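Collaborator request log, item 7. Partner lab (contact: R.S.) asked for a structural prediction of Ribose transport system substrate-binding protein to inform their binding assays.
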Amino acid sequence: MTYSYTAKGRGAALATTLLGAAMAVSAQAETADIVAQSTEIVEQGYAGLYEAPPSSGPAAVEGKNIWYISCGQAFVLCAQQAAGFEEAAEHLGWTVSIQDGKATPSIASDIIRQAVAAKVDGIAISAFDCPGIKSALLQAKADGVPVVSVQSIDCSADVFGAEEPLFTASVNMLGSTDARDFYYRFGELRAHYVIAKTGGEGKIVSIAETSQQVQQSNHQGFMDIIGKCEGCEVAESTFNFGQVPSPATQIWQSALLQNPDAVAVEYGIDALMELGLQTAVRQTGRRDLIVGGGEGFPNNFEQIRSGTQTFSIGLPFKWFGWAVADTMNRVQAGEAPEDMPSQGTGFMFVDAEHNLPASGEMLEPPVDFRAAYLSIWNG
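Returned to partner:
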């Protein structure tokens, strides 16, 4: 069965197949049994909802000096992506410098300027949107230094006024170079899990981050699917990253206290559990709540084992790093950004009965993406 996916609210439609299962219920299915639909998607998610990496492309363009700007090495997801890029770059024959952007646009901008001054062959950057680093990107463009982004939004996006694009190329994941589309699907999947496990009945506390465009899309994906569930009620609890851990912890505690009849708590950022949300959940004294989010870190997997968290939707962070490397290699080989293929990637559901990796380990997707890239780069 194939479902069609539409990125709502931005006037943009994106349809793609994730191994025969796309992430949203079609308009025709709106009157069908949403619980049955969600249950089927969850079963597919246990097996893994992935698209394969590209099957062809340029051989390794060796001898390049590339700087990679991490979104913040203190964060597991950023460090894992950087490690994946470094792994891939070794196979490409590049000299790589991993730079820590520390989740701060001004720091990332300074690193871009330093890279331009060092006359690097390319800059890769993760999770910094164009407006926050615009002046540095303009300098890189003026000096002919290509900048490849992943999980970032370019200045050409409608939400930023549809200005001139400043990233040389953005990684295409699941058929889109707009990071909002990936996160929208991420939100859809959480809704499907909650619907399937609650039988489509009850109140859900939905914790939504409001300061980042990708997180707004993440929440919108959840809301668009949950809106198809007639028996579901949503109590939204909003916060922004600047409020973490305080007063965000108090915001979450209040949301749970004000909704004692909730059957589930959902959020799009697993790291929140370590930043106060775990405390808020435990203070309810309830062990029957469905609690879950996505990203998939070792600490969250331990919380699933202990019963504090119910589920996570794991992302293949090292694969993201290899995807950035392949996109940069295509830029170095002269491939036009508009011709670059999807790098694949995808999602996998993890709960106490499915896909828990060994203690302390990250989730590894059941796709040998490394071999796929090496078959291209080795010619």
